[in-house]
Specification:
Length: 496
């Protein structure tokens, strides 16, 4: 079996009982196969190999030495349950569909129907050979499902970034020629619906944006803000350090379905053409989107960290963690209304050296410089629970090289989403010394950096935060045993 380098397993419960579940675990690997395993026995149930990868099997069979890593199916999986009835297992009209790209393995995006546990079916496959997707790069951006209304008809769709331009492996600042786009396709057929891109792109995108000059390997984050079951907002970051906002105006035609622009520019794009090595912050992960009430006003917090995932041992870039406040939570911002100069890094409050910062409501956000060792960086998404944002960082060791990346330091940060101050443990005695900068994080086991944070429930529904094999109890982190039930209000007038 090939290696699963940049992916993690994804389980699906079909039926059974708590003591005897009937479930499959899916995993793509770099020999080109999507595997399905029985969760109880580990037995392989089936494996799917895209036809385009058939020719790559013989070189693997020969097992000859190679000067470069072999990539094939290297993209994260996303699972969609259509007609979800909210109960465990699959039944009735429910359908389970796997979505995935190829990561460094190529420019394909796939949808596989896995509703029948032993009879998977390929729904569709797209690539840059289709003129509508000519601007696709390496498909790093995990496809995500949503629902929108186009010309009065509700459609199940998939949204994803244009992917990665391999030229970004070059450490210098660059304008990309692949991947600088955002796509929307039909969930069941893969039919092209909408896209955004640069005016000079190969494909004539309906939404043309002069600043869309950098590839987008990050997942796009769609949101349903008014609770009507339709996505009306999307956020995503790019390789130039920009944060994009898109407003979906449901009911419009395909050509003018979405308005969008740059909300913040925090990396090399903002400093170009005089960008230094320290400026070249890139966003590989989706922003952690947190609707929050501050000063009796709904504000959307966008939490995201920068980190050169293409070169995790890099020490030249001044990487940071950001929390941006989008004050226009419900309204639509017309494309033409975005300012020529978006929010800059200097406009965010630097809380790095202040463990107890005081931020006024009007501040556009805060930033935390990652300075716990040369090259400290964020390689994955953050997770916000009960107003506490969790994220991991990786600092390469002083003697690390491309074959010994595991000699670095992994840290788990737990800080306030409002102002970045260290998490206050409710059981911490008042007579102890005040919290310090080092109270923002704790070191994890060293080794290859683990980029995914998961929330799980332990015994008695205790909330736990897990990073790889290490799990920390919610009580230890200052969280309750489970998230409390909070009142939610619905208004006829959405502007309220």
């Amino acid at each position: 079996m090939g290696d699963a380098l940049h992916v993690q397993p994804l389980p699906l419960l079909y039926s059974g009982t708590e003591d005897n579940p009937v479930a499959s675990v899916f995993l793509p690997t770099n020999d080109g196969f999507l595997h399905a395993f029985d969760s109880q026995t580990g037995e392989e149930l089936w494996a799917f190999l895209p036809a385009r990868l058939l020719a790559s099997l013989y070189p693997l069979y020969l097992n000859e030495e190679s000067a470069s890593k072999h990539y094939r199916l290297d993209g994260e999986l996303s699972l969609v349950i259509l007609n979800d009835d909210g109960r465990p297992g699959l039944g009735g009209e429910e359908r389970a569909i796997l979505l995935f790209g190829m990561g460094r393995g190529g420019d394909g995006v796939f949808a596989v129907d896995v509703t029948a546990r032993d009879a998977p079916r390929l729904l569709w496959e797209i690539s840059s050979s289709d003129p509508a997707f000519a601007d696709l790069g390496q498909t790093w951006s995990t496809p995500v499902a949503a629902r929108v209304r186009i010309d009065g008809a509700v459609r199940n769709v998939v949204v994803f970034g244009g992917g990665y331009d391999a030229g970004q492996d070059n450490r210098n600042y660059r304008i990309d020629t692949q991947g600088n786009a955002v796509y929307m396709v039909d969930l069941l057929s893969g039919e092209y619906i909408w896209s955004a891109g640069h005016p000079d792109a190969v494909h004539d995108h309906p939404l043309q944006l002069d600043d869309m000059q950098h590839s987008i390997p990050a997942p796009v984050r769609p949101l349903d803000l008014n609770g009507d079951g339709l996505a009306d907002r999307m956020y995503v970051g790019d390789m130039g350090g920009r944060i994009w906002r898109f407003d979906i105006v449901n009911g419009r035609s395909r050509s003018d379905l979405v308005e969008g622009g740059v909300l913040a520019s925090l990396g090399g794009a903002a400093a170009a053409p005089d960008a230094t090595a320290a400026d070249l912050r890139r966003f590989y992960a989706a922003p952690d989107v947190v609707p929050t009430v501050i000063n009796r006003k709904l504000v959307i917090l966008l939490n995201i960290g920068s980190g050169y995932r293409g070169h995790p041992l890099d020490t030249a870039i001044s990487e940071q963690f950001f929390s941006i406040r989008d004050f226009n939570a419900y309204g639509v911002i017309d494309t033409a209304a975005y300012p020529d100069t978006p929010l800059s890094i200097d406009q965010l409050t630097d809380i790095t050296d202040d463990p107890s910062p005081t931020l006024p409501f009007s501040t556009p956000g805060w930033r935390l410089r990652l300075n716990q060792g040369a090259g400290e960086k964020v390689l994955g998404e953050s997770l916000t629970l009960e107003n506490t944002v969790f994220f991991t960082s990786f600092t390469p060791g002083e003697t690390a090289n491309e074959c010994s990346a595991g000699t670095g330091i992994n840290r788990l940060y737990a800080i306030s989403s409002f102002d970045g101050r260290p998490l206050l443990d409710p059981d911490r005695p008042e007579e102890l010394e005040p919290l310090t900068i080092s109270d923002r994080f704790r070191e994890l086991r060293s080794g290859i950096p683990v980029i995914n944070i998961n929330r799980v429930f332990g015994e008695d529904r205790e909330t736990m935060i897990c990073v790889g094999p290490e799990c920390l109890a919610g009580d230890e982190l200052g969280l309750g045993r489970s998230s409390p039930v909070r009142r939610t209000y619905w208004f006829q007038d959405e502007s309220r």
